[in-house]
Structure prediction request, 157 residues.
Amino acid sequence: MPEVTPGLTIGQVAERTGLSVHTLRFYEREDILAGPVRRGPGGRRAYTEQDVQWLIFCTRLRASGMPLTTIRRYTELVRLGPGNEPDRLAVLRQHREDVSRQISELTECLTLISHKVKMYEDSLTRDGTGPWRHGAVESPDRDGSTDSGGSPVRSRS
Prediction:
């Protein structure tokens, strides 16, 4: 008789995926797992390596902004098995487009922040005090950053 592998405990899966035990139970209730979680002796959850890999994938989808409702929909499609690959592909293509848009927006933000950091570094390098003036406030220039004449107030007490 072949030996039955007991599976991974919920604590082990939490450690491997970075998800809390509470989140794992929530994902199970919300049908985010690709298949039912097996139960071991005493009714304890017994996860498989495939469950762990699926959860890691779902965590990446969630971290990249995919709503739980969309993850659930994708999971439903996977559970249905072969024949709906075009639908799965459509879900992933849409998410890829959303992530690309987010990356573009964040790249613009990073460019602006980097410009501001360089402005302050250059100013502080020049005279050691920067463009600080009592009563000055930051005002945006054309690109949304501020010029050296519109720096934040620094108290001179």
Observations:
- Strands lie at 38-39, 45-46.
- DSSP finds five helices and two strands in the chain.
- Helices lie at 10-17, 21-29, 49-63, 68-80, 85-127.
- The radius of gyration is 25 Å.
